[in-house]
Specification:
The chain is α/β, with parallel strands linked by helices. It has two domains: 161 residues, Rossmann fold (3-Layer(aba) Sandwich), CATH 3.40.50.620; 92 residues, Alpha-Beta Plaits, CATH 3.30.70. 43% of the residues lie in helices and 13% in strands. The strands form two sheets. It has a four-stranded parallel beta sheet with strand order 3-2-1-4, with helices on both faces. A three-stranded mixed beta sheet has the order 5-6-7, with helices on one face. β1, α2 and β2 form a beta-alpha-beta unit. The longest helix has 19 residues. The two termini are 37 Å apart.
């Protein structure tokens, strides 16, 4: 048996050891795979809890509901007012810690109210190599990380997702919209909506992996280098520029370095 094929049974056994698990479900690659395996393994003893907040793209919330309906998974959608979390809007370097501590505390409460003691989330082995202050919050709250326990990497998860015929196997990775802000710049719901709409535009135009970073009134677009020509050399450039300016960005730029995961962490030395 290959190393990869050993990891999925290890994941299943880990989930079985808890009996009942509520999965923090965002409809991303990792949480979709985790929810699928959890539900296949535990049946109705696995449910999904999805947080509805300003930093979650509208399309992700819609996709989460569609997936749960298709798979017959009970989904609880909980409202979260991130702007009411002390320190979140100030956007300090440990913003992710502050936010995850508050959101997962609420998730634990929601899970408990529905008869579930354990909450599991979808971080994988690759998440250990970046600046991830949110992982500290998960550890402090005893949130389960089954994919890491099974030694699964992002590549592993995509391969296994493809075998399970999950629609997310080749889905681009999308992080919380708050990651688009420069640390120290204040986060507002209006700017989060601007970013959400700007990135939805790029998705609608067929770009595959991207970010729209916000620097005051400047939008800095990150796309894969192989898609530079699509943005610059066609009428799409004018369409994107005009649309983002209508959203409220005064200037629209493209980062010549291309898409980079966690590029806002460069100022922190990561």
């Amino acid at each position: 048996m290959s190393e990869l094929t050993q990891k999925k049974p290890k994941l299943e056994e880990y989930l079985k050891s808890f009996g009942k698990v509520a999965v923090a479900f965002s409809s991303g690659v990792d949480s979709t795979f985790l929810l699928k395996v959890a539900h296949d393994t535990l049946g109705d003893n696995a449910i999904a809890i999805t947080m509805k907040s300003a930093s979650v793209p509208v399309r992700e919330l819609e996709e989460s509901a569609a997936f749960c309906k298709k798979e017959g998974v009970m989904q609880i959608i909980a409202e979260a007012d991130q702007m009411a979390i002390e320190g979140f809007a100030d956007n300090p370097p440990d913003r992710c810690y502050i936010c995850k501590k508050a959101l997962f505390s609420k998730m634990l409460s929601v899970a408990s109210d529905n008869g579930f003691e354990h909450v599991a989330e979808g971080s994988n082995m690759d998440d250990l190599g970046d600046y991830r202050p949110g992982l500290k919050a998960l550890s402090e709250l005893d949130i389960l990380s089954p994919l890491r326990e099974a030694g699964l990497t992002k590549s592993d998860i995509r391969m296994l997702s493809r075998e399970l015929d999950l629609p997310t196997w080749d889905k681009p990775s999308f992080a919380c919209l708050a990651t688009r802000f420069v640390y120290g710049d204040r986060i507002t719901e209006e700017k989060l909506r601007m970013i959400d709409k700007a990135e939805q535009k790029l998705l609608d135009l067929g770009f595959t992996q991207f970010r729209v970073r916000i620097h005051g009134d400047i939008a800095r677009i990150e796309i894969k280098p192989e898609e530079f020509g699509k943005l610059i050399g066609t009428d799409i450039r004018s369409e994107v520029n005009g649309y983002l300016q209508e959203l409220g960005f005064r200037y629209v730029t493209m980062d010549l370095g291309g898409y980079v995961t966690g590029s806002m962490n460069k100022v922190l030395g990561f």
